[in-house]
Amino acid sequence: MRRMSTLVVTAAMAAGVVFTALPAQSAAAYEVTCNVPEMHQQITRLRDRANSQDRSGDHSGARSTRSQADALQRRMQWCIDAENNL
Questions:
Q1: Which residue has the higher pLDDT, 6 or 81?
Q2: Nearest alpha carbon to residue 42 among 83, 72, 71, 66
Q3: Do 32 and 72 form a contact (C-beta atoms < 8 A)?
């Protein structure tokens, strides 16, 4: 029983070391690329689709599509702000 506990603790400690090392490596390798014109076109397509869904009576679908467009609009603005702050 004691041997099993020691193995479990050792494995947990080793996994903890690996787990704590991963975010640092991931953050260093993470790079965001933004294609603002493409994002703008996608926002326009999403808003057009939302308007079409509204006309067809699918109001909940239109709300969902508009929220996707709004999220993409915010992300595009973050990209623009990041480029301006370089």
A1: 81
A2: 72
A3: no
Residue with token string 């704590």: 20
pLDDT tens, position by position, 19-77: 455 555 554 455 557 899 999 999 999 999 999 999 999 999 999 999 999 999 999 99
Question: CA-CA distances (angstroms) from residue 2 to 6, 10, 14, 66, 69?
Answer: 6, 12, 18, 58, 57
Q: Give the residue ranges of DSSP H helices in the chain.
A: 2-29, 36-56, 59-84
Please check whether residue 79 is in contact with residue 39, taking contact to mean a CB–CB distance below 8 angstroms. Answer: yes
- Judging by beta carbons within 10 Å of its beta carbon (0-12, 13-18, 19+), is residue 6 exposed, middle or buried? exposed
Collect all residues with Cβ–Cβ distance below 8 Å to 78 and sequence separation of at least 6.
none
On the question of pLDDT at 2 being above 50, the answer is no
